[in-house]
Specification:
The chain is of the alpha+beta class. It is built from ten helices and 31 strands. Strands 4, 6, 21, 22, 23, 24 and 25 form a seven-stranded antiparallel beta sheet that branches. A six-stranded antiparallel barrel has the order 7-16-19-18-17-20. Strands 27-28-29-31-30 form a five-stranded mixed barrel.
Length: 537
């Protein structure tokens, strides 16, 4: 009985199989393909029980707006990817979102970083020049007419000490004034015992003569010697009022000079100024009393510490800069007036703010955009308002919250690889923007597809690696003809989408690469695999 039942089941199965074969044989190729898809979908539905999924369609593996109801290959031989109901590939992107396949995200080298709360410390850098401290510059100018009799210091740039003799002068006026004072002093001594108006008048005359000598900058030691000896001297010695460097010397032995003529200029260079030109946009960060670090090309291993003492009130229209004075000590007189200097002014922010790396901002000139990663392969372009900047980060005053993942590398490639412009168009409209996914593009209206920006077209080449430049991230490849570009066999240089691809490119290796044109004339390898040893080049 059991054997009879088994035979009966086998006969029924054979009849069903024959009927199915007859039915498929009388259908067209399209019907057969649909049958294959249905069979595949059925297999998926019955294979996993609770994890059954419905097959919707097959999408282009490179993210192009092309779908197929049946399995197929793209021009480079890559299999189309199945899309199932309820799967991640099938889920539509939200309005104003950009969607990139996770495989392509990895190839493009996309890197994200969380927005952080931190203080934006930065350094204002400016170029400057060394100048003498104007408060330590002295001019030696006789207040009477005379002649230069002798020079003790006769070289510009010579170092002098305080009180060191500079030159001797002869002046008839000076000799007359000395004699007048000597006579008056003797008269006071003679009329010492006399009283009345004679003694008083002689004392007034002696006092006036003494004051005249002092007004001519005759030193007290010379006046004392004149008083004690009563003898006049033919010449008068002028001495340096300060220790410093002779910056200017007009005195020539034997020359005649007039009252007020500057014969020497001496500068004390123990303290100097740096006049730095700070750009207009940074001048608001510079305050009096701020510390400064000065570096000089002549002393690359030394850093000089100074302090901002004055911010000048005017701006140079030609350079759009404001002069800032930095005062600093000059030990060993290493800093010479006229030297160029680089000034660095550390600026401390007022508090912690939300910041992102500078590379995260896409600046169109009219507005600034950052890409927020909502999920792997899903990015939301968001308009932001920026604030203060440091050397590497920028404050986001509106548009990004702390902890949100922002794209900091390859964001311009996401712009090129997806319909970013279409997504950004929804930022300014009240109506929701269409999803910018490959699957959404495939089912959109033809007019919408025509309006979407063109995506990068992939190409394939097989050849031999001639050389690899790890530092530049480039590879030299001798490849065969490329039909999609109508290229003949040749040797050319490619860039790589990320550093990991360079590990698979060794000189002498035969490989098959996929590449795109990222910019006009810039060819970038996105995939590498060993070549078929029997494939021709």
């Amino acid at each position: 009985m059991k054997q009879s039942t088994g035979i009966t089941v086998a006969v029924i199965a054979a009849v069903i199989a024959a009927g199915a074969g007859y039915w498929l044989g009388h259908k067209g190729p399209a019907s057969q393909a649909q049958g294959t898809v249905s069979a595949t979908a059925a297999a998926v539905d019955t294979g996993a029980g609770s994890t059954s999924r419905k097959l919707l369609y097959y999408r282009n593996p490179m993210g192009l707006p092309d779908t197929s109801p049946t399995p197929k290959k793209d021009p480079m031989g890559m299999d189309y990817i199945a899309v199932y109901a309820g799967g991640a590939d099938e889920e539509p992107a939200a309005a104003n979102q950009v969607r990139i396949s996770t495989e392509k995200v990895q190839k493009l080298g996309v890197r994200v970083e969380a927005a952080q709360l931190r203080a934006l410390d930065k350094s204002v850098r400016a170029s400057g020049r060394i100048e003498p401290d104007e408060r330590r510059v002295y001019a030696i100018s006789p207040k009477f007419e005379g002649y230069v009799e002798r020079l003790h210091v006769n070289v510009t740039g010579q170092a002098v000490g305080k009180g060191q003799p500079l030159f001797e002068v002869y002046s008839p006026e000076l000799v007359s004034a000395q004699r007048e004072y000597a006579i008056a002093a003797q008269g006071v001594a003679t009329l010492k015992d006399a009283g009345g108006q004679a003694q008083s008048g002689m004392q007034q005359l002696a006092g006036a003569s003494l004051q005249r000598l002092r007004n001519w900058d005759i030193s007290e030691s010379q006046i004392k010697a004149l008083t004690q000896s009563g003898a006049t001297t033919r010449t008068l010695t002028f001495r340096s009022p300060v220790s410093g460097i002779v910056m200017e010397k007009k005195a020539v032995q034997g020359m005649r000079f007039m009252p007020g003529e500057a014969l020497y200029q001496i500068a004390d260079l123990s303290t100097v100024w740096v006049i730095a030109d700070v750009f207009e946009q940074d001048i608001g960060l510079v305050k009096n009393g701020a510390k400064a670090t000065v570096s000089i090309n002549a002393y690359p291993d030394k850093a000089f510490a100074g302090r901002v003492t004055y911010v000048y009130p005017t701006l140079k229209a030609e350079t759009r800069t404001v002069a800032v004075r930095v005062e600093l000590a000059n030990p060993g007189l290493l800093l010479k007036p006229g030297m160029f200097a680089q000034v660095e002014l550390p600026v401390t922010a007022k508090g912690q703010v939300v910041t992102v790396p500078v590379s995260a901002v896409i600046d169109s000139g009219t507005r600034q955009i950052v890409l927020i990663q909502q999920a792997p392969g899903r990015f939301e372009p968001r308009e932001v308002k920026l604030g203060a900047r440091s050397d590497t980060r920028v404050e986001v005053r509106d548009g990004v919250k702390e902890g949100e993942q922002v794209v900091v590398a390859a964001n311009f490639l996401i712009d090129a690889e997806s319909n970013l412009k279409a997504a950004l168009g929804g930022l300014g409209s009240a109506a929701p923007a269409p999803a910018t996914t490959a699957s959404a593009a495939a089912v959109a209206a033809p007019a919408a597809q025509a309006a979407a920006p063109a995506k990068a077209v992939g190409h394939q080449a097989t050849g031999t690696v001639d050389g690899v430049d790890l530092k530049a991230g480039t590879v030299s490849l001798s490849h065969g003809p490329i039909a999609s570009l109508k290229w003949p066999a040749m040797t050319m240089e490619f860039k790589t989408a990320n550093a990991a691809l360079l590990q698979a490119l060794k000189p002498g290796a035969k490989v098959t690469v996929e590449f795109i044109e990222r910019q006009p004339g810039e060819w970038v390898i996105t995939s590498v695999k060993p070549a078929d040893p029997h494939a021709g080049q």
